[in-house]
Amino acid sequence: MTVYVVGLDGADWSLLRRWMDEGALPAFERLCAEGVTGDLRSTLPPITFPAWKCYSTGKTPGKLGVYEWFSFDRERCEIATNDSSDFRSREYWDVLADADRDAAVVNMPTTHPPRTADGVLTVAGSPASERGEFTSPESLKPDLLDAVPSYRVKPNLVLGEASPDELVTEARTLVDQRFDAAEWFAAERDRDLVHLTVFITDTVQHRLWDRPGHIRRLYERIDDRLGELLDDEGTEAVFLMSDHGFVEIDETFLVNQWLANRGDLVVGEDSSRTVLSSLGLTEERLKRLVDRLGLVNLAQAVVPESIQRRVPNESGRLSVQDAPVDWEQTKAISLGRGPVYVNDRAFDSDSSKAAYVEELATAFESLETPDGTPVAAAVHDPGDIYTGEMALAPDLVVEYTTGVDAPESLGGEVFGERLEWLATHRHTGVFAAWGEDVAERDEAAELSLYDLAPTILHRLGVAVPEDVDGDVAFDVLAGDAAARDVEVGPATATGTGDRRADQRDVEETLKDLGYVE
């Protein structure tokens, strides 16, 4: 018997309930009718990195040391992409392995490169690549490909060039591959727990929010496969969750351009980028060319990263990570949709820096979009929303108003720019559970991402690590699981490991997905 956790990146009740009411998602409807449902509060910011790891560890980013896709080294003033080795905690399936319970993980972002405990079978998710190591143990790869031929981590198309029909067709194929792998792990490898993530839901929603019929086709395929799990006699329970919700973008706010206009972010001239742009050589044109010639892998392997990063895109915008930042003059920088870092080099004392942080927070709080909507719902001191040592923590966390998207791009207007995304993340995602020792109730449950790991561990009769931030959600449990006291186990905090990921792969994936310019 297997407990499944089905993670749907970015799933939102505003879509699911509409299609359930129309009779298009019978398996989702059954899961909700026979089990328990509710909203699931994400972390701040509600972004893939680190949200998935907040789920799998039960901890806030302050204990994980990761707050977004990118990190900032204050001493060196260096920006780097995060990968699995940067997270300072074991995950709940590692705890299961310690208790001789067998688990498998399929396609979860933040598991690249795979570094789970011995006994946990892992197929890494985006930004992993089939070109490199993406299973743990490595010997699992040929068996996986034999069981699920043509399994691939990423879409087999250029996202920016694909038609809506092509994107949805590819997405449905990836859904089948994720579920096929999960069912294979359960049936052939006798796993007590299998987690699978469908990440392509996030990609499709970002790009096709104005085409709900196409998004519905994707969820109808997910519903087919979810129904198979519910009907399978080997399924003990199903937990359904998303790392965050989704909402249409009402306004784009280029936070780093705003900082630059204030004089707080100072960027020098990149002569090589200007020359390439004047020659008409853009990132999009190169991507289309190498894709048509089938040379994507070769180009990434032989073209130096320093050259790849300098190729401009057609919009004229660039990722702040690629900008020639003047760190002697720059006071602040945003590395994503929320975290803002203040540069120690720009201040001669702690008190002057503290005064600037306070002034910057006030400026964010008073900022409005052109139609008068507050840009920020709240501006947080990280110590007020995170726990732990908060290694590499930002100085401020801006909680943007729902519908305001704040990418890290430089170039263009502060407000009103149109990027690839039509919709963005919001703080509330979805939760549902069904099966043995799961409650049946009409009242909605309220949980956070941090509650899932301790709840699932307790449901499986395994001790909950003493250093988790979440709680066991007893109102979603029934039977023995609801009656038992929580057993507390050892802490799961760790140091960081050796960085094994190729940052070129990670950054190329982030650009393909639209997370950076």
UniProtKB/TrEMBL annotation:
Superkingdom as given in the UniProt entry = Archaea
Q: Which SUPFAM superfamilies match?
A: Alkaline phosphatase-like
Name of a matching Pfam family: Phosphodiest
Q: Which is an annotated GO molecular function term of this record? A: hydrolase activity
Q: Which InterPro entries match?
A: Alkaline_phosphatase_core_sf (IPR017850), Phosphodiest/P_Trfase (IPR002591)
Q: What name does the UniProt record give this protein?
A: Alkaline phosphatase family protein
